[in-house]
Design a protein that fits this description.
The protein contains 16 helices and 24 strands. The protein is α+β, with helices and mostly antiparallel strands and about 700 residues long.
Length: about 700
């Protein structure tokens, strides 16, 4: 049998839908041959199984006939009606509807309520003095609740709907009733999320239905029923951008879900002019979708449908078997929407789709041509595995759909499971184009942040070297200095130190801390350190230098502050004169005992211009160790400052026993902070040797 498994109805794919060219044709031909073999094997397997089953039924029939003392002619079998495939699940027959109607209503209303599927009622609008509808009185109802459970309709008769079912108002049903009265025609919706309390129990149902005015009687006929599973499935496919398809290898047909048709670009919406050709389009009311006159009847896919209703989709598709004219709003009969589509296809206004093609397999070749050439070899290998009865899990490929690229993640499963001769192949796919775009954007942002972080690290390293340079040797042989710096866990900060010999022989000693963290704080620290280096060549004392440094900080563009200790050590007298701008006082270690120096402190740098800073004096002696430090050495989250200072003094006792300032500062840092700190920390030490 020469039936290709990728059939074509004579249409050739347009050049723009053939991204692979000759390579694509070669792949399709190879896949055709592979699929043909799989179809032939599947059909042979089914014929064999059917033949075996036929013989078994004949033997069983003869056996039963022999037991009863009769015979059954060969080739004739009988199946009992009670157990047949069309028997009701309930052997007692279909349930009847219980209806209650108030006296005075036309007799046909009860019959209509009994025939309607789902929850049905007849409502009388109750108007206020201003002519507006205030409520609705239940004039008739069947036994089905809005939530789907059964109830006695007599409980509702003659009572306001707001009293018997208050959820009808809050769920938006009243808006639909008002729309029907305003239009004087039927309206429908499939988007009611109904909540209510029934007999003390909270109930919820997702409903679709119609409201029809009975103009002569001044009443409304309502019909509500739960949204069918197929409609929920379509919503899920739409929101998740997923779809499925099943390729029947026995018949060669493919059944597509609506989501898969949209994913592959095979589901084309009606053009705008066709949408309005037959009547008025549906509108909205109160946030609820409303279909105009001629709207589709409620979807009965969840409970059954009329087999005689004309179909508007190709065989095997998952669209409802009853015509739905809600998109066109036509009032010209049930076939008006179908005729409009047919007219559009005939005039070329609307391209053929899977939903409208005569043979649903006719578009398989077109779909295969959508695959990006780079993915063809992988897809070919996957199809070989599927048609050999294996399973494909979580593979990706690129499709060219209507001039755009779509990235698709898909899986395939052959049925029966584990058979090397499958009879059908089930596909599931998801459009991950948007996910891929977001991922690329996230990766791009991550790479940008990585590059920015790398650049910041390079800048931080440059600034760190500028803020904590190697210390020079000094002319007085009895003076040695050492410094240690530890950045915070988050990186560099605003700590800095300055120690150098001035032309007049004095030694400038300073430690500071610019407020803030990161590169910005370090940049300000470099500015402050550089400013002090220039100011140090003046004849000013430490108080004057500190005041002028405060002017520099205050005149900056940013509203920032800083702290500092600025001092001079006179090598002739070993007198240390210093000023503090809100900075921790230095520690003097003499004879192995540490002391926090008493001092007068001035304001932080930058708080106000022309602030004055008193000068403190400390006389150093041979063997003394002078330590200047920043607050990162003593401040700890969750502890007060005194606790940190006490820990520093205890560490000084252990680390200051030698005569080397560098060893002492390194010991203090490793003892107090380790490799990292909550804030950057700096210690500058000066040791006065004997002699």
């Amino acid at each position: 049998m020469n039936e290709p498994s990728f059939p074509t109805d004579g249409r050739e794919a347009s050049p723009e839908r053939e991204p692979g060219g000759a390579r694509s044709d070669e792949f399709l031909q190879k896949l055709d041959r592979l699929a043909l073999r799989s179809v032939a094997r599947a059909r042979h397997r089914v014929r064999t199984r059917v033949g075996a089953g036929s013989k078994t039924r004949q033997v069983t029939a003869r056996s039963r006939a022999g037991t009863a003392g009769g015979s059954v002619p060969e080739g004739n079998t009988t199946e009992g009606a009670a157990g047949g495939p069309f028997a009701y699940d309930d052997s007692s027959g279909a349930a009847t509807s219980h209806v209650a109607v108030l006296p005075g209503l036309p007799p046909w209303i009860g019959s209509v309520l009994a025939l309607i599927r789902g929850s049905a009622s007849v409502l009388r609008p109750e108007y206020g003095s201003d002519g507006a509808v205030r409520d609705y009185t239940v004039m008739g109802a069947n036994h089905l609740e809005l939530s789907g459970s059964g109830n006695d309709p007599l409980d509702f008769l003659g009572r306001p709907l707001s009293e018997t079912r208050p959820g009808a108002r809050t769920s938006g049903m009243y808006d639909l009733y008002a729309a029907a009265l305003a239009r004087n025609g039927p309206v429908g919706t499939d988007s009611i999320d109904y909540f209510d309390v029934v007999d003390g129990t909270l109930r919820r149902a997702r409903l679709r239905g119609t409201v029809t005015p009975l103009a002569e009687e001044g009443l409304l006929l309502t019909n509500w029923e739960p949204v069918g599973e197929s409609r929920i499935a379509r919503r899920a496919q739409e929101s998740a951008r997923i779809g499925w398809a099943e390729w029947d290898l026995v018949t060669g047909k493919v059944q597509w879900s609506e989501g898969m048709r949209v994913l592959l670009g095979l589901s084309v919406p009606l053009p705008e002019e066709l949408e309005t050709r037959g009547g008025t389009k549906g509108g909205t009311k109160g946030g609820t979708e409303v279909r105009g006159e001629g709207a589709a009847a409620p979807d009965t896919s969840a409970t059954g449908s009329d087999a005689s209703a004309p179909r508007t989709s190709a065989p095997g598709s998952d669209v409802s078997s009853t015509p739905d004219t809600s998109a066109t709003g036509t009032g010209g009969g049930p076939d008006a929407g179908t005729e409009a589509v047919a007219d559009a296809m005939a005039t070329g206004e609307m391209p053929p789709t899977v939903a409208s093609a005569r043979d649903i397999g006719a578009d398989m070749r077109t779909i295969a041509r959508m695959i990006d050439p780079a993915d063809l070899p992988h897809f070919e290998a996957d199809m070989e595995r599927l048609l050999a009865g294996e399973e494909i899990a979580d593979h990706e490929m690129t499709l060219h759909v209507k001039g755009e690229e779509r990235r698709v993640r898909w899986m395939g499963h052959a049925r029966p499971t584990g058979s090397d001769t499958p009879e059908s192949v089930l596909f599931a796919a998801r459009d991950i184009t948007e996910q891929e775009r977001r991922l690329r954007s996230a990766l791009s942002d991550a790479e940008r942040l990585r590059q920015e972080a790398a650049a910041e690290r390079r800048v931080s390293e440059i600034l760190r070297k500028a803020l904590t340079p190697p210390l020079p040797a000094f002319t007085p042989p009895w003076l040695s200095v050492g410094a240690a710096y530890v950045p915070s866990d988050s990186g560099i900060g605003g700590d800095w130190y300055k120690c150098r010999e001035l032309p007049d022989g004095r030694v400038l000693v300073a430690v500071g801390d610019a407020s803030g963290h990161g590169v910005d704080a370090a940049s300000r620290a470099v500015q402050q350190r550089s400013a002090l280096a220039g100011l140090a060549y003046t004849d000013g004392d430490p108080g004057q230098l500190t005041r002028e440094l405060g002017e520099v900080v205050h005149s900056g563009d940013l509203d920032t502050t800083a702290t500092a200790v600025v001092g001079h050590l006179d090598p002739r007298t070993r007198l240390f004169r210093w000023a503090s701008a809100g900075h921790p006082s230095p520690i003097l270690v003499r004879d192995g005992v540490p002391y926090v120096l008493d001092a007068e402190h001035g304001l932080l740098l930058g708080v106000m211009p022309e602030a004055s800073y008193p000068v403190n004096t400390t006389q150093l002696a041979p063997g003394d160790l002078l330590l200047l430090y920043t607050d990162g050495v003593v401040e700890r989250r969750g502890h007060d400052l005194d606790t940190g200072v006490h820990a520093l003094l205890e560490a000084v006792v252990r680390c200051a026993s030698g005569a080397d300032a560098r060893a002492a500062t390194d010991c203090l840092m490793s003892t107090l902070l380790g490799p990292g700190a909550e804030d950057d920390a700096t210690i500058l030490g000066l040791h006065v040797a004997w002699g």
